[in-house]
Structure prediction request, 225 residues.
Amino acid sequence: MSILFEQRESDSLYIETVTHGQTACDGSAIRPAENRWHMVVVRHNGPTRILVVGPWTTSGVVSYTAGAELIWIQFKLGVLMPHLPTRDFLNTEAVLPGAARRSFWLKGAAWQFPEHETVEVFVDRLVRQEVLVCDLVVHSVMQGQTQDISPRTLRHRFLRTTGLTQSHIRQVERAQQAAALLRQGASILDTVYETGYFDQPHLTRALKQYIGYTPAQLLRMSQPA
Prediction:
């Protein structure tokens, strides 16, 4: 494998997952669309860097070099940095400026780079200083709870908080569900039925756009080597 990694869930109300990995060699890979944004700590042949990444509205290709250590902090939908609107780094990544060898600048203050074991402590500090906040309306809607606000206001809240529309988020989630079924060995027709696509061409278009693979490719990937 080109990237060796381990992923864990978090008990933080703000973090979806934490992933720790290393790149074993130079390479590239197809990455899927991603509704959630990340902070990524990169250590590789020099100063440590921290990036603000995504969300990604479509699938694409990511390249990497050997010998890098990476920590991905994936935030839950509804979490944002008010001074850095999520829409401003949609489909891109930005390196935060370094402050010293072990720290970086964010919202006018120097912050120490987190380690894999201290991610939750790092995020808690960001929350206490109100660098990170959670839009409870968006969070509640994504949990299936109704809100007594107009559709126009709700659309504005989603765009402000996530950089995405609620419809787009649902489309990506449906494609992710379909891809998971195919990787588990479900047939293409069963996957079309289970996930509510009109037909196989509709499923194929969605998976190519959001996952980067066709249904047939995902099925082949599910087969034992």
